[in-house]
Amino acid sequence: MSTIVAPSLLAADFLHLKRDIEMLNKSEAEWIHLDIMDGLFVPNISFGFPVINQLKEVTDKILDVHLMIVSPEKFTDEIAAAGATYMNVHYEACPHLHRVVQEIRKKGMKPAVTLNPHTPISLLEEILPELEMVLLMSVNPGFGGQQFIEATVRKVAQLREMITRRNSHALIQVDGGVNLETGRRLVDAGADVLVAGSFVFSSENPEETIRQLRAL
Ligand code: DX5
Ligand code: ZN
């Protein structure tokens, strides 16, 4: 099975967003990763509903929404209306995670839980059977273009072991500092989905870069 590539729109050129989305449409990327930040859960603010609501009109790619916000459960209706397939919420932002996950599923989306770099895999033991995907952050969330945190490779392997042991079908996604070198090691450790922002959009030939990531 080839690796699923989810280019992160955060690294696109917002003055030429249509051009960048047309590039993604032509590319082998199956998904588009959308980073929503609130300036509270993370020290940055990105884009919100005025942007993501329009995407479903211009792309058939799977929309994967990564919410780096407090109280993400407030926005399940809006994220579903934007056409999201995956709604990613942070473990660290949800004291009632089980309820949020049920709510996401009720609204017709696939629930995914994201772990910050300091959060251990073992904390997923009880929620894993309810999930379609786990996103492991390989940088501290909030910004594109940061350096890959090496310990993520070991976390991917641990999560793969837990998924096999619990007979789960959850995908393993990794986000932050992904390039061909880190991507190779993540896929070898068991990752299914690679998010890549700056590596794709600052490349000379983004479509070719996506193709290379997919072939890992
Ligand atoms: C970081 C975001 C990422 C970001 C990745 O908080 O969640 O999705 O866009 O960017 P790169 O691939 O440049 O590290
Ligand atoms: Zn992200």
Summary keywords:
single chain; 216 residues; 8 helices; binds zinc ion; eight-stranded parallel sheet; TIM Barrel; alpha/beta; 8 strands; 34% helix; binds D-xylitol-5-phosphate; globular
Topology:
Elements: E1 4-7, H1 17-26, E2 31-37, H2 49-58, E3 62-68, H3 76-81, E4 86-90, H4 97-106, E5 110-115, E6 133-137, H5 151-165, E7 171-175, H6 180-189, E8 193-196, H7 198-201, H8 206-214
Parallel strand pairs: 1-8, 2-3, 3-4, 4-5, 5-6, 6-7, 7-8
The structure holds D-xylitol-5-phosphate and zinc ion.
D-xylitol-5-phosphate binds at residues 8, 10-11, 33, 35, 66, 139, 141-146, 175-178, 195-199.
Strand order of the largest sheet: 1-8-7-6-5-4-3-2
CATH architecture classification name: Alpha-Beta Barrel
Ligands, deduplicated: D-xylitol-5-phosphate, zinc ion
* Total strand segments: 8
CATH topology: TIM Barrel
How many separate domains make up the residues?
Answer: 1
Strand content: 15-25%
- Derived structural class: alpha/beta
Superfamily at the CATH H level? Answer: Aldolase class I
Catalogue the unreliable spans.
Answer: none
Write the element-wise H/E pattern from the N-terminal end onward: EHEHEHEHEEHEHEHH
**Biggest sheet, open or closed, and with what strands and sense?**
8 strands, parallel
